[in-house]
Write a structure and sequence with these properties.
Blueprint lengths: L16 H10 L1 E7 L2 E7 L1 H49 L17 H26 L1 H36 L6 H5 L2 H5 L10 H51 L2
Helix pairs in contact: 2-3, 2-7, 3-4, 4-7
């Protein structure tokens, strides 16, 4: 004997009116696509929590980008100053002859100095422009950051890392003894220091350029660390976005 249809019915589900009212007050209306068309429903509070976490994470990434720009700017100032000062000193003293010679090597090479000077100048200029946009208008800077996007930042960061690694390596390789850094640190420079004491202090310029090379390495390392941290934060943000999209798809099938 078949049982009545009502016997298969599930017992009524009790609804906590206070909990439902709390859900309504915390939920936001969203549109989902159903077989009958788009419908507006209340968004579950946990989705709003995920969105708030995503917003905070994106904000932290933007702050980290700003910190990276500031550190890049500060680390590039000293190499810029030191190379400009050294090059100026060379150009202003190379024609001064004492006891039949000048203060520098016979065939002085200046390309390592110009290379580090150019890289530092470009980094300082770009960093200044970006920092100025933040100072003038945070909204404008965020809009620019959003326009450039992740790909633009990755390309910019990758280019900076590659350029600074290449610059630091080339600057060290160029220290052959005929360059400005190698010559000021050489024994030959020490031997003629007394003759040119009134013109140049070789030891000071040796130290200045040595510190500049150390900071160029620090610049490359700082950029690499920044890139790694940003990549990890970006992966976490994408993971949260996939979780949110999956929950939204579950709602559409509800």
């Amino acid at each position: 004997m078949s049982m009545p249809y009502d016997s298969y019915a599930q017992p009524p589900i009790s609804l906590d009116t206070k909990q439902y009212a709390s859900f309504q007050s915390n939920a936001s209306p969203i549109k989902i696509f159903t077989p009958s068309g788009y419908q507006q429903i209340l968004e579950p509070p946990h989705l709003e929590n995920i969105r708030q976490k995503d917003y905070r994470l994106k904000r932290q990434i933007r702050i980290w980008k700003l910190v990276a720009r500031i550190s890049t700017f500060l680390l590039a100032i000293y190499p810029l100053y030191s190379q400009a000062t050294t090059l100026h000193q060379y150009l202003s003293t190379r024609d001064i002859i004492i006891d039949g010679r000048n203060a520098w090597a016979k065939e002085t090479t200046i390309w390592p100095t110009i290379l580090l000077l150019s890289t530092s100048s470009a980094t300082v200029l770009v960093s200044l422009l970006i920092l100025a946009s933040y100072l003038l208008s945070v909204k404008h800077a965020n809009r620019t950051d959003k326009t450039v996007g992740t790909a633009g930042f990755v390309i910019d960061m990758g280019a900076h890392i590659a350029v600074w690694i290449a610059t630091a390596a080339a600057y060290r390789v160029g220290k052959t003894g005929n360059d400005l850094w190698g010559w000021t640190c050489s024994d030959m420079a020490d031997q003629i220091q007394d003759q040119f004491q009134a013109i140049i202090n070789f030891n000071n310029f040796c130290n200045v350029q040595s510190y500049a090379w150390i900071l160029s390495i620090a610049q490359a390392v700082a950029l690499i660390v920044t890139g790694v941290v940003y990549y990890l934060a970006w992966r976490r943000m994408k993971h949260k976005e996939r979780m949110e999209n999956g929950m939204m798809q579950n709602l559409t099938h509800f």
